[in-house]
Amino acid sequence: MRRQIHAGLLLPAEKLPAERQLSDRFGISRVTLREALRVLETDEYITVRRGAQGGAFVADEDRLCELARRRMLRAPAKTMRVVEFLTVNQMAAARLACMRRGPAEMKRMREAVAMMHAARTAPHRKQAEALFLLALGDATQNPLLARAIEDGLAELFLPYDTPSTSEAGTVALVNFERLLAALNAEGVGEAEAAMADLHGLLWDTVRRLGRAAA
Which of 98, 100, 43 is nearest to 68 (CA)? Predict the structure, then answer.
């Protein structure tokens, strides 16, 4: 769950499934799950509410941003290394996916782009982008490369950026659309160019957030 929060797959203040569902999903006992939830609560990633409307909830947006800023401050060089790792693997994935993508992965990426268009908050945009990139990894038909992208997204825990109506969000959406079109047309060169532009935006964001957190 920590990895899913870092990657943006779980939204701020989102209610987590019931204990039984979570224990079945992760293949662990409810005792082990409760201990894991206790650790996440102690680390401020989730809050646990009691009562009829209670349950475990992801921390709110402000708290997650604060956790991400602390993480960047503690190890700024690590953040840069994670971006290097992620961008290298995403570029390789873009090339391979042009030749290997199947209908299922293309459908997932189209749905993710539709989610980007509908996103009205930074967390929703981040979630949609993560879903696109995970589908891109799967489109390579290489489980090791797909896992590398998943690991990179889970390690790159950044504060939520500006709203999806911002110029950066608009430019990112255009480049995701370019990448989707290139994958559909099996255009390796255009896919690489679109991915390179997305990586330029990511580096700009990381540097700006790093300066703001310092």
Answer: 43
Q: Where are the beta strands (DSSP E) in the chain?
A: 46-49, 55-58
**Rounded to 5 degrees, what are φ and ψ at 23?**
-65, -40
- Tens of pLDDT, residues 58-79: 999 999 999 999 999 998 899 9
Tens of pLDDT, residue by residue over 123-172, are: 999 999 999 999 999 999 999 999 999 999 999 999 987 544 467 778 89
Token pair, residue 124, equals: 């929703």
DSSP-derived 3-state class of residue 163: coil
Angle at CA 177, nearest 5°, toward 138 and 136? 5
Element (H, E) at 7: helix 2-7
